[in-house]
Specification:
Blueprint lengths: L7 E2 L7 E6 L3 E6 L8 H14 L8 E6 L5 E8 L2 H16 L8 H27 L4 H14 L7 E11 L2 E10 L2 E8 L2 E8 L5 E5 L7 E5 L4 E5 L4 H20 L18 H17 L7 E11 L4 E10 L2 E6 L5 E6 L3 E6 L10 E5 L4 E5 L4 H18 L16 H14 L7 E2 H9 L3 H12 L1 H7 L3 H9 L5 H10 L12 H17 L9 H11 L2 H15 L9 H17 L1 H6 L3 H14 L7 H14 L1 H14 L1 H6 L3 H13 L1 E2 L25 E2 H12 L4 H31 L7 H21 L5 H4 L11 E2 L1 H11 L8 H12 L7 E2 H13 L2 H10 L29 E3 L5 E3 L1 H14 L10 E2 H14 L6 H26 L4 H10 L21 H10 L4 E2 L1 H8 L3 H8 L4 H32 L1
Parallel strand pairs: 21-22
Antiparallel strand pairs: 1-5, 2-3, 3-4, 4-5, 6-7, 6-12, 7-8, 8-9, 10-11, 11-12, 13-14, 13-19, 14-15, 15-16, 16-20, 17-18, 18-19, 23-24, 25-26, 27-28
Length: 1084
Amino acid sequence: MWLKPEEVLLKNALKLWVTQKSSCYFILQRRRGHGEGGGRLTGRLVGALDAVLDSNARVAPFRILLQVPGSQVYSPIACGATLEEINQHWDWLEQNLLHTLSVFDNKDDIASFVKGKVKALIAEETSSRLAEQEEEPEKFREALVKFEARFNFPEAEKLVTYYSCCCWKGRVPRQGWLYLSINHLCFYSFFLGKELKLIVPWVDIQKLERTSNVFLTDTIRITTQNKERDFSMFLNLDEVFKIMEQLADVTLRRLLDNEVFDLDPDLQEPSQITKRDLEARAQNEFFRAFFRLPRQEKLHAVVDCSLWTPFSRCHTVGRMFTSDRYICFASKEDGCCNVILPLREVVSIEKMEDTSLLPNPVIVSIRSKMAFQFIELKDRDSLVGSLLVRLQRVHANHPVHYDTSQDEDMSREQIKISLWNDHFVEYGRTVCMFRTEKIRKLVAMGIPESLRGKLWLLFSDAVTDLASHPGYYGNLVEESMGKCCLVTEEIERDLHRSLPEHPAFQNETGIAALRRVLTAYAHRNPKIGYCQSMNILTSVLLLYAKEEEAFWLLVAVCERMLPDYFNHRVIGAQVDQSVFEELIKEHLPELAEHMNDLSALASISLSWFLTLFLSIMPLESAVSVVDCFFYDGIKAIFQLGLAVLEANAEGLCSSKDDGQALMVLSRFLDHIKNEDSPGPSVGSHHAFFSDDQEPYPVTDIADLIRDSYEKFGDQSVEQIEHLRCKHRIRVLQGHEDTTKQNVLRVVTPEVSILPEDLEELYDLFKREHMMSCYWEQPRPVAPRHDPSRPYAEQYRIDVRQFTHLFQLVSPWTCGAHTEILAERTFRLLDDNMDHLIEFKAFVSCLDVMYNGEMNEKIKLLYRLHIPPALTENDRDSQSPLKNPLLSTSRPLVFGKSNGDAIDYQKQLKQMIKDLAKEKDKTEKELPKMSQREFIQFCKTLYSMFHEDPEENELYQAIATVTTLLLQIGEVGQRSSSSGSCSHEGGEELRASALSPDQDSVFADNNAGKIPQDSRTFTEEVEGDWTVSLEHILASLLTEQSLVNFFEKPLDIKLKLENAKINQYSLKTFEMSRQSQPELKLNNV
């Protein structure tokens, strides 16, 4: 085990220890006398000394010391009771530390680094042991406290697990702690007086892979948009990588693929996710993929056992998997024997007498009069008890009478049929048959025509769905037929393109059956609805199965065997294309090297996966591929694709472009024949025609399938699922990059913001959305992120998120008033009143603020202070009738430097007339601003000037302009009034109410009382006092300091840099502020 490093002098112990191995920095020693055949006396002497000199050594005959060159001081860092144990520690040091230490220049740094690493390993071992003993160990609570203190996330950011490791910065490792939370990967290090913090959201990760470099044999590399980070020196790297892979997969699919992704019930609430949940999910997904079971099937137990296999006359060692509706068995030796027992088929589950030859036996009997004997089951009683409860529940919910009679009408392909009949006798003929290597060979030879439909149902387990849902398909057909929508129109358009050359679809009977199946499925699963290629697949299913059976086969393919293939973005097919590219590099390296861009090859092969080769191979040959697919799943398509490429490797390597490569593959696939097919030859759906007169060599499908199994059949389900998980991250991030580039392409020509700044703004906009998904309740993912919408509308934010961004990047900061201004801006931009805005609207507004002309900026400010931006319920918009802040009774007198005063009333009236004449009539006229709205406009301007270097000049200028505008409003009011004498007389009286030097716009409510007659006048004219945008703009242009303020150049880059740094902290502060009232309420 690892030891806490303590310094010792080696010269005092030279006679007690013998050096076994040594390197530049480490020494492995054996206790003298231990393991020496002739050293009995020496061993006794050393043992006696141990009690006095070194009591710890008695239990550890081996140890490893840290030695720094040139120093006499050594530090024990590990000990072991056996040579095997100490060698494991030595190997770990050699692989993870030895090459790393050469990067340090200082000996003391080397010693500090190694000691810190060993202490971290000890802490991790301790926490791992505690985690095994209790659900919430004290060590985890300590780590949680440190995580919260170091990264200051909201409480909703749940820590899942943590590990000691090193993060590489160039060639220098930084020892620290890796924290994995539900939304982020975080790393903290404090080493040699330097603190390092890294925060990487899972949604930013584009690659997650295991690599090796010059210094270390195994590292985990995290790739984001701009950086690569390597983490190494884990105590258990396999475990760490699996947890990271699960967290990245769950988070990316939850946030970026919510169009089709359904989370496991245990993972629906991210704040409740634990390490145990992630491990269970990984096991559950492997279970469902291996046995190709429905997505909703939940694994309950995995038990080691042995199954009696009568064909081999022995017990086969393997594991039993039990779930809601299935008992499954898989042998330890891959492909030796698999069994799927739907509980619907099970008659009884019984415990037999325990004997030495048959320990803990259980007999599972099925309806077809077969019995399966399992032995060596641990905790047999509780296992059988839980199985009986689920068995009773399944039979109670779906009582079905099975027809056990056997179909003996087999008149074609007698040799194959006799082989299959012999196999049925020995291995079983129902879904519960023993699935061995022998049945795989029979499938590869081609299933007889008369058995094809039945075996497809058995291999896919669609037969269980069919029996479990009597009448379901008929009801769906009744509900869906006659309804007209976009999906039914697409189906109608493709009906006559589905195997048009086949006689079955040259009449209305076949077309009507195809229409019913496709429409019923679209009605069952509106998330998928209908996608092209489903028509071709369904046509083939109808050739070999009854209509209802074809429907359930389609369900099995779309929902279990090809998950996420048939939807708006065909994510599943793209993931498998990416996996296929990696398999090409691994198995056909020469071809991969020649084809520089494998994506072109992948685009050619996309139809292979979407239609299972049905669209590009003669039908009688392609159905043999479908046979293998229903037995082996997607693995069969991968290996057949590799076999096709290998067979054409020479032609592909000599091809000059993608078109020629397509020609090579198309000709090959069109000349694949099925020599055993009893029916007439039917060409491929998209057969390739060539003018060449030279006959093309024919390939037998049986030979091609046999080659695919022999050369490329070594891929296990676990390996394929791992590759899918790895490439799903890349595909989803690829879609995100495409969305981003398309949004920027649309927005860039319409604004003056630089492209690189626009990209930063997009990242901030998306991150703001993501942070609300992380921590807000309820989680707003569905309405705000919809991958099926146009690119520019996929991400949208609400008013709270917009307010955060406005505070971070807007140049119009108004102190406490900023939040109010942001809310008004949001209401202005929210054209469709759905309380969400997209990126284009957000950037267009910012572009005016940063790059607009003065008149554009004033127009925007003006619009922010009239409806719909300003509302009656605006929290900072009280009516002057209730709170008379604005004085409207001052005379229209401007102070001059020589003390003279000039009356401008006539000039103002003329200005108003001139502005009205010059106004562009083509532009939609903005409504005039009322006095209440004008108060808010002035308040915003005053707030904007706060802390400006020219603050005093700006205040004086805006006071002058405001006074001018007040009088313009009153002049306009008088000119539109009836001109009664009482109003004119009252106006003359009010002309002396305030002296010219009282130019304050906002009066203090408590400083003095407003005369009753003034308040009365205000109430009378509130509805008539108005001012227009033209008035405001003309008045502002009279003050040079205001013109300078609105026309000065503004740099967005500094704002963006600060925003990237402060975005998380602002969100955290806002959430902590929200939680304070709740805490106070709870305390009360």
